[in-house]
Model the fold of this input.
Amino acid sequence: MELKKELTNIAKSAQEASRFMLTVSTATKNKVLKNMALVLISKKESILKANKKDIARATKAGLSGSLLDRLTLSAKRIKEMSDSLIEISKLNDPVGEVIKAWRRPNGLWIHKVRVPIGVIAIIYESRPNVTSDCIGLCFKSGNSVILRGGSDALNSNVAIYQLLKAVIKKYGVPQNLINMVTTADRDAVDVLLKLNNYIDLVIPRGGESLINRVIKSSRIPLIKHYKGICHVYVDAWADLNMAENLCYNAKCQRPGVCNAMESMLVHRDVAARFLPAMLKKFKEAGVENRGCSMTQRIVKGTKRATEQDYHTEYLDLILSVKVVNDLNEAVRHINYYGTHHSDSIVTENYENALEFLRKVDSACVYVNASTRFTDGYQFGLGAEIGISTDKLHARGPMALEELTTYKYMVFGNGQVRE
Done:
């Protein structure tokens, strides 16, 4: 009962604060964001100290190298967090934007206007930079936020949260605009998901078990930020040097993130020329290659890929490989095994590129580019709440516009309906 009371009070206060935000000017929002950015830099040592505690505990618990990478902060990554807040401050404020307006024959003026969603609960795992990104985006878009991060990053998340919360107090903005649930009690998530009188939207981002738990328990509308089983398809018309660089980047640049390549598809006409050097390069980088029977025949010693491998988001230096007969087989494979996140084709054939773009049912579809670009900052959106794999309301990198809804403002001069 105490937990329910505590979380209900947080949600209730967040709702009140969100209504206050409707009166806060864009200029004030931008000043707050710039000061948040400065605080992250000036207090980076305290953030790094907190992060070291999380790293030590995670190392002792035996987390994999890729998961430790997701958890680890550095001076460079804190600078990137700060830069994201500055970038958000430079973006247009979506709140109050007139999406469209029209006059009816009876003289009514109808305006479709962007407004904040209200109170957003974000349930996430591992990466501490999510804390500052979510606070910055929700603040600029006029929403209150309730953050529930994973226990493995608790010290880092709390350190960042407390620093940014202190900034808004200086500007007379209610501190309950940003909130963090710090209890280790796993029941906290279930309690939050029942507070539909106060919370307008839930955004879960993390592993499959977390997403499924939220789907099962929530009484609140949600936008899923699901796992990323991302593909790169090397077409028969590919520039193979380009393909090698793109595939290597997509897999090895940062394997523990959701936009890393998990499965590589290669057209049979170029497989014998492309796979030996490519898989050798992966192996030298520490990647465990798992391939189909054709891959095994071309590159001896390759481990056989199972059906489960093609369904797996490794978040690690493991790669599934398949040789396909044509573009249509590649598309069918991606739409069946993928998670509708990010997929890419490497080709010099314009018609094949267009067909891939049309037929692959993913949030982000690329031609001759690495899937690693699926990122709010890389898209020029300042930052992201995450990558939505849903289709309704938001899809792909979810930033300022996706954190708003709209309402109709209607102007009349005495009209009555007959």
